[in-house]
Amino acid sequence: MTTHTDDALELADIQRGVLSARPTPYAATYLAFRIDDRRDGRELMRRASTAVTSAADPVSPLGDTWVSVAVTCRGLEALGVPRASLETFAWEFRQGMAARAAALGDVGESGPEHWEAPLGGPGVHVVLTAVAPDPARLEAAVDRARPAYDRLSGVTAVWRQDCYALPTETEHFGYRDGVSHPAVEGSGIPGSNELEVPLKAGEFVLGYRDEIGGIQSPRPTVLGRNGSYAVFRKLHQDVAAFRRCLRDNSSGPEDEELLAAKIMGRWRSGAPLALAPQADDPALGADPHRRNTFLYESDDPAGFKTPGGCHIRRANPRDAAVAGEVRLHRMIRRGAVYGPPLPEGVLEDDGADRGLMFAFIGAHLGRQFEFVQSQWMNDGVFFGANDAQDPVTGSRDGSGDFTVPRRPLRRRLTSLPRFVVTRGGEYCFLPGLTALRWLGDLED
Questions:
Q1: DSSP codes of every residue in 194-236
Q2: How far is 6 from 397, CA to CA, in rounded Å?
Q3: How many structural domains are present in the chain?
Q4: What is the pLDDT of residue 1?
Q5: Which N-terminal stretch is annotated as signal sequence (predicted)?
Q6: How far apart (Å, rounded) are the C-alpha atoms in residues 444 and 136?
Q7: pLDDT tens across 277-331, in order?
Q8: Which of 264, 273, 349, 364 is the most exposed, having the fewest neighbouring CB atoms within 10 Å of its CB?
Q9: CB under 8 A, 24+ apart: contacts of 325-329
């Protein structure tokens, strides 16, 4: 905890990847490293501090392109961060995602014992993320960052995942992605919902006041301030099973699209049911100024337009009456597609690995990502639906259901299979640029 009271965001010391929305379209890559030699690991931090673009830079040397560097708790240990300092970090971060699997619903097929190595293991210490508008500029960004880790014998690259975003901004289930993001006080970046009051900076950046007036920051302040926590998750999508579920529970193509919208809370174009309840509106879905500007409670408390159990209403209930103060559970959420698309109309799995790499950014792992995942996505008590899980990402075993409020009779889907399987993930710390240099200058 720190008593720093200056709430003006120090954008020049915050990694751009913490606050900036990604370009559209874009390509991305995740590179994971293991530190075998402390001196080389510290040199990696020093070099990384010069490769990372800050939130104050409107344009990087490569245009709308940037590199972020994150460190796991095991990575901080490998760098020689003192135990007294490590103990001031969030306890979820210190445990690691694999240890939190049961609370997150990562069980069965999604259990850490089935994760893609080395994710969740002790050998992931640093995660470098590069983002660019296209593959050519992505490789240029990776090349620019390569001197940070190249020719360091004590640093070993252990994993890479290439991702992309289509010009349509859709993911493998066919929905427009990346629609919603919150406004952060002092960032200069507008949120996507003009009806939402900007959130305090301390909800997303460590060392600043949050929504309840607290200031969270690991110690020493030079390490914690201007950092953030990042949750990285690799999620496999069973597209064929999702398509079969829609087909088997629909009376025809139009009904299938309506059901798909009710499950997500948006039409596949991105148009929300809250604003287009009867039919899709592609122009609305393509308009970033309108497609996310809505609330629920004023005209849809019972969920006749947007079901209470649909994916987007669970992830962000907005002004709906639910258990939990919504503003304390907001996150910056980003997704990137990996793997080849399943050809349109195909209803049988082709064996290819496809899905999403998700990044969740926030200053409170417990009450942001973990709360939303365990209480809102994998449970239904918060809106009066007992143990019903999210219809898209729920960790059910084939016995789940989903209810669509409807007059005169509600519509109910039963025995929903699991559509999304966790392939791995990490809890990371995104240091500020000063902190990266501090880590580089550590001495035994």
A1: TTSPPBPGGGTSTTSB-TTS-B---SSHHHHTT-EEEEEEEEE
A2: 49
A3: 2
A4: 39
A5: none
A6: 41
A7: 999 999 999 999 999 999 999 889 999 999 999 999 999 999 987 766 899 999 9
A8: 349
A9: 325/211, 327/199, 327/203, 327/211, 328/203, 328/211, 328/212, 328/364, 328/367, 328/368, 329/367, 329/368, 329/371, 329/372, 329/376
Do 420 and 276 share a structural domain? yes
Measured distance CA(160)–CA(31) in Å, rounded: 5
Please state the separation of Cα 436 from the chain's center in Å: 23
Between residues 398 and 422, the one the model is more confident about? 422
Measured CA to CA, the distance from residue 365 to residue 91 in angstroms comes to 9
Structure tokens at 267: 């039409």
Confidence at residue 62, expressed as pLDDT on a 0 to 100 scale: 54
What distance, in Å, lies between the first and last C-alpha atoms of the chain? Answer: 25
pLDDT above 90: percentage of residues in the chain: 80
Mean residue pLDDT across the chain: 93
| Residues 365 and 206: beta-carbon distance below 8 Å | no
DSSP-derived 3-state class of residue 395: coil
Residues 59 and 162 in one domain: yes
Quick one: tokens of 364? 């409170």
How long is the chain? 444
Residue with tokens 């990502």: 369
Rounded Cα–Cα distance for residues 293 and 270 (Å) = 12
Q: Is the pLDDT of residue 58 over 70?
A: no
Asked if 204 and 184 count as a contact pair (C-beta separation under 8 A), the reply is yes
Examine the domain organization and report whether 78 and 27 are in the same domain: yes
Decide if pLDDT at 422 tops 90. Answer: yes
Q: Of the candidates 431, 312, 327, 314, which has an alpha carbon nearest to the alpha carbon of residue 375?
A: 314
pLDDT, tens digit (0-9, with 9 covering 90-100), for 170-189 = 999 999 998 999 999 999 88
Write down the pLDDT at residue 302.
Answer: 93
The CA distance from 96 to 107, in Å, is: 16
The region of weakest confidence among 56-65, 129-138, 278-287, 334-343 is 56-65
Q: Is 397 helix (H, G, I), strand (E, B) or coil?
A: coil
52 and 70 fall within a common domain: yes
Task: Check whether residue 21 and residue 114 sit in a common domain.
Answer: yes
Determine the pLDDT at residue 177: 92
